[in-house]
Fold this protein.
Amino acid sequence: MAETLPQVADAQFDLVSDEDLRTVSDSLGDGSSALVVAWENTWAARLAAAVRES
């Protein structure tokens, strides 16, 4: 799938938009499905704040 959707499979990809999800959806063939997993590393914001304050 990375070859089919390089714009949403890039390792540097940061945000998932509605357009990205439509791109994935439109690329699926009949009778197929996909799972999109998104997560946020909330600990990173606290770490960045602590580093800035130190």
About this structure: The chain has one domain: 6-53.
